[in-house]
Amino acid sequence: MGDQLREIFAENLRYYMEQNGKSQADLMRYMNVSSATASDWVNGRKMPRADKLQAIASWLGIQLSNLMEERTDSGYYLNPETAQMAQEIFDNKELRMLFSVGRDMDPEDLKALHDMALALKRKERNEEW
Fold first, then answer.
1. Which residues contact 122 (CB under 8 A, 6 or more apart)?
2. Which pLDDT tens digit goes with each residue over 51-96?
3. 27 near 41, Cβ under 8 Å?
4. What is the CATH number of domain 2-68?
5. Could you tell me if residue 77 is left (phi over 0), alpha (psi between -120 and 50 degrees) or otherwise beta?
6. Domain boundaries, the chain
7. Rounded to an integer, what distance in angstroms lies between the CA atom of residue 83 and that of residue 87?
8. Quick one: 102 exposed, middle or buried, by C-beta within 10 A (0-12, 13-18, 19+)?
9. 0.70 exceeded by the pTM?
10. Rounded to an integer, what distance in angstroms lies between the CA atom of residue 89 and that of residue 96?
């Protein structure tokens, strides 16, 4: 499992660094580590300590789980910032209803959510209300 976790971490690290326009040299400077250490992390030869893992996730603006778990996304969101925002909304239990409507939701709340989503789509298309 250790080798597999290192590979998953390295793949995710490379992916999110690319999405954020960050280089291995940026990682080295931000984390105050040698180029060899940064290279080991990016290439899956070694894993950072837990405190450094959290610092890397914060630097990339993602959840720690995004670094540690195998990505199953199929690139649903075209814009990385949109994908990140969607993940933040999903991770917030108060906002999660935007993704999964509970069976106990009031019809008025569901209608308000529906109307808000439609209004945002119209705005996106520059349509009149």
1. 128, 129
2. 999 999 999 999 999 999 987 655 556 677 777 777 777 776 666 6
3. yes
4. 1.10.260.40
5. beta
6. 2-68, 92-124
7. 6
8. exposed
9. no
10. 6
State the Cα–Cα distance between residues 116 and 122, nearest whole angstrom: 10
Share above pLDDT 90 across residues of the chain, in percent, rounded to a whole number: 43
Q: Which long-range contacts (CB under 8 A, 24 or more apart) does 66-70 make?
A: 66/12, 66/16, 67/9, 67/12, 67/13, 67/16, 68/5, 68/8, 68/9, 68/12, 69/8, 69/12, 70/8
The predicted structure's pLDDT at residue 32: 96
- Retrieve residue 5's tokens: 């976790």
